[in-house]
């Protein structure tokens, strides 16, 4: 189901974020995510990716973080004035801070929790469960297993599945590839890009792995030390000599996605 394709669903303008009144994590960062597109946020450790995703979900106050300037709007709502649960009900659903699952609960109960968070009724939850099992057959096979016993890849699938149970309009993901084998990463991205293509699901994905991000996203913003260093279409960024040299390990090198060279290095 397309969501007014092309319209800005998320707008971030000149965003400044400070933690604990002292650590200035973002400096004037801007980003627009249009309905129906996959946007990537790439950057090295500490560049500010997680902070931006927390800001987008209005999770900063709980971490003594504060938006001190700029604008953040989801579908026209001022994010800083909207509670996280209201943002979820409006369609902004995140998979942040690792892949939180309720470890003692079964896969099924974890997924059901995602549907209830949105206020879905029983029938809708049942239908959405079957849909998630169809997308991630590995979860269907382990529906009665405690989430804490799943592999890392399966836990990531469960976390994404739980978010999908909330029927997101914008799905926000923090490093879904982190620590996972290339085959598992590909399987997860295949599902995400498939949902984007077939249903117009809008995605904002933070990734350290630039090669991976630029292969799957339509647009990308590169963060360096809390500032937007580069932005543009993934195709244009991939073609740039400086991006090739700095982030992709040179044009001639066909290194795998797990190569350290495809990760963003901290600027000198
Ligand atoms: P990583 O991939 O390591 O998570 P990142 O790009 O997501 O990196 P952030 O985690 O957003 O970067 O960190 C940006 C800056 O904000 C860093 O200097 C970090 O030390 C600081 N920071 C992050 N969280 C907090 C916090 N809760 N309190 C204080 N400072 C923080």
Automatic annotation (TrEMBL):
<dbReference type="InterPro" id="IPR003439">
    <property type="entry name" value="ABC_transporter-like_ATP-bd"/>
</dbReference>
<keyword id="KW-0547">Nucleotide-binding</keyword>
<dbReference type="GO" id="GO:0016887">
    <property type="term" value="F:ATP hydrolysis activity"/>
</dbReference>
<dbReference type="Pfam" id="PF00005">
    <property type="entry name" value="ABC_tran"/>
</dbReference>
<feature type="domain" description="ABC transporter">
    <location>
        <begin position="10"/>
        <end position="250"/>
    </location>
</feature>
<dbReference type="InterPro" id="IPR003593">
    <property type="entry name" value="AAA+_ATPase"/>
</dbReference>
<dbReference type="GO" id="GO:0015807">
    <property type="term" value="P:L-amino acid transport"/>
</dbReference>
<dbReference type="GO" id="GO:0015658">
    <property type="term" value="F:branched-chain amino acid transmembrane transporter activity"/>
</dbReference>
<dbReference type="GO" id="GO:0005524">
    <property type="term" value="F:ATP binding"/>
</dbReference>
<keyword id="KW-0029">Amino-acid transport</keyword>
<dbReference type="InterPro" id="IPR027417">
    <property type="entry name" value="P-loop_NTPase"/>
</dbReference>
<dbReference type="InterPro" id="IPR052156">
    <property type="entry name" value="BCAA_Transport_ATP-bd_LivF"/>
</dbReference>
<keyword id="KW-0067">ATP-binding</keyword>
<keyword id="KW-0813">Transport</keyword>
<comment type="similarity">
    <text>Belongs to the ABC transporter superfamily.</text>
</comment>
<protein>
    <submittedName>
        <fullName>ABC transporter ATP-binding protein</fullName>
    </submittedName>
</protein>
<dbReference type="InterPro" id="IPR017871">
    <property type="entry name" value="ABC_transporter-like_CS"/>
</dbReference>
């Amino acid at each position: 189901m397309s969501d007014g394709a092309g319209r800005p669903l998320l707008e971030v303008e000149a965003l400044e974020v400070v933690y604990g009144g002292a650590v200035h994590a973002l400096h004037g960062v801007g980003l627009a995510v249009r309905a129906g597109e996959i946007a990537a946020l790439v950057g090295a450790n500490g560049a500010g990716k997680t902070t931006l995703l927390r800001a987008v979900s209005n999770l900063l106050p709980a971490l003594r973080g504060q938006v001190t300037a700029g604008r953040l709007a989801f579908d026209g709502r001022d994010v800083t004035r909207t509670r996280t649960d209201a943002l979820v009900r409006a369609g902004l659903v995140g998979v942040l801070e690792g892949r939180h699952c309720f470890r003692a609960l079964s896969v099924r109960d974890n997924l059901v929790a995602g549907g209830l968070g949105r206020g879905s009724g029983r029938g809708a939850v049942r239908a959405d469960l079957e849909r998630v099992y169809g997308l991630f057959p590995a979860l269907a096979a382990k529906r009665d297993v405690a989430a804490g016993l799943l592999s890392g890849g399966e836990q990531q699938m469960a976390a994404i599945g739980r978010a999908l149970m909330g029927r997101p309009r914008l799905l926000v993901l923090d490093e879904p590839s982190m620590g996972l084998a290339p085959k598992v990463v590909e399987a997860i991205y295949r599902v995400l890009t498939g949902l984007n293509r077939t249903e117009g699901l809008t995605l904002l994905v933070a990734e350290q792995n630039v090669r991976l991000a630029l292969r799957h996203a339509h647009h990308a913003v590169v963060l360096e030390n809390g500032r937007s260093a580069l932005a543009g279409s993934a195709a244009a960024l991939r073609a740039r000599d400086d991006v090739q040299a700095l982030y992709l390990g040179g044009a001639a090198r066909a290194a795998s996605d797990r190569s350290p060279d495809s990760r963003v290095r901290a600027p000198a």
